[in-house]
# Entry
Amino acid sequence: MTAPAASVTRFAETRVFLDQISTRVGKVVVGQDVVVERVLIALLTSGHLLLQGVPGLAKTLLVAAVSKTVDLAFARIQFTIDLLPSDIVGSEILDQKTHEFRTHKGPIFTNLLLADEINRAAPKVQSALLEAMQERRVTIGNQTYPLPAPFLVIATQNPVEQAGTFELPEAQLDRFMLLHRLGYLTKEQEMEVLRRNVQLGVRRDGKGAVARTEFDVLGEQTTGSSEQLVRAMEDVQKVHVSEAFLEHCVEIVNRTRKHRKLDLGCSPRAGISLVKASRARALIHGRDYVLPEDLFALAEDVILHRIRLTYEAVAEGHTSQQVLQEILSEVAR
Amino acid sequence: MSVRSCLRGFAAALVLGLALVAQSRDQRTAGVGVRAYIEQIVLPGSELIAAPTSLKAPVAVRVLKVWPHGSLLRYDLEWTGLEAGEHDLAKFLARKDGSPTQDLPPVAVTVTTVLGKGMVEPSELKPQPAQRLHGYTALQIAAGVAWMVGLLAILLVGRRWQRRMGTPPPLPTLADRLRPLVKAVATGSADVGAKAELERLLVAFWRARLDLREARAVDAIVAIREHAEAGALLRQLEAWLHMPTPPAEADWQALLAPYRSVTAASFEPIAAKESR
# Structure
């Protein structure tokens, strides 16, 4: 087999693997194809993902489904006001028998970490997690431990209940490659959710039984191995990025910095994230090159959390979404 | 009333008078700013009052009480020294009936100070003129007139200046921007930046033609891809600009031929054009 032919075969295999993940997750989670795609993009690029949506949109179920499908270690932390950094990264414990300190590694030592309601924890806890996300290692006592690879944080936050929360500052939001806003399902999708729920039944547990939930539907058998995931991650790096595409990215990022309605434009990290995420999307869509379509599809998730409206723009009733669409339209003008 | 009771009353009055004399104060020396009293002092002539004084007077005197004392009068005086030195309180008293006070004996007092000689004294306070409390309406009218004059000056001078400078050139339309780019790319003289801009302008052209200006950017791209004519153009452009190995050699001349002479009217939505 020639080198290009081998490359095409490998791309095809990767695409089948990614399709299988989407299909398997789709069996459990209804109508969140875009979110599944975003989770895959985050997984393939080692970028972190922040999901914003009201409770009950199957955020946790989705992440659990992805982790079980790809055979990744999964941990979930429910962020609360009394959570401590040591509850996440771990701590040193005095062993009463040996009279020596023993390291207890926290739940962050996993492949896929779901940080549920990240804005409920105190800023020092948020920064402990975000530091680990950035550096991919944590320090407990005097020892520094690398985090497992792949390491991905999928955090969630509820945009409605803001009382008793600590909003993530722009500098910390910038560390999330994508911020995806989940919306409600369509009528048909919600009907399908209810249909599936009706058929769940009960699960026998010893002499008793409990009503089955969507989590029980998740089988223990995985669709792919972590080796396949690593190969897919390598394939993302082979996706061709043209100079013209880079021109489009730089143009968009620059326009956010000059727009009169924006107080804060995108950092260079936004441009990097746009290119990385576009490469992963191209692979998911079976292409070995990126297109402007990838850029436009991902712009909201990559850019919206990195820009801030001016006071005047807010007073005039403009939203970040409107301004971004203006920028994207101007780019294509 | 018996003689005995009269004697008793006289004795009581005498005791009271002696007690008052014994209690009376005669403070002839005091520090600057310290209040002092000279009581039960008998002075000749008609009734005395404090003479009108000025802010610069070295001593301030007040007549607290006056009693008849035989044919004379007896006084309780209060004084406050404002300048160190020896002073005569008689100079600061005047007759109630306006008659001269030359016959008054001197009432010498000494004002002491703890400050050393040659002290630099604070600058004298200069009274400020009272704030102007009238003429507000006139001031408002004057301000209004000044504002109107200023506004007229700005408008008239601005217009004259504009006339002199001429009207600014209108911003180039999309068509104006598209034509030179098409020409440059077709002749092979355009760099990557120009080709990328051409792609963006062609997307904008078709967004306008297909009436997708209000649609989200990603939805607009998808819709353009689905259109027969626009989709073919976009796919060809994407192949030449973004694929690592394009399927065919780029023939920009042929691809861009329909866009060489676009005008502002070419950007009108197709449906709107057909309905005319």
About this structure: Chain B touches chain A at residues 174, 192-193, 195-197, 199-201, 203-204, 207, 213, 216-218, 220-222, 225, 238, 241-244 (CB under 8 Å). Helices of chain B lie at 3-23, 136-165, 174-186, 192-209, 217-226, 228-242, 252-256, 270-275.
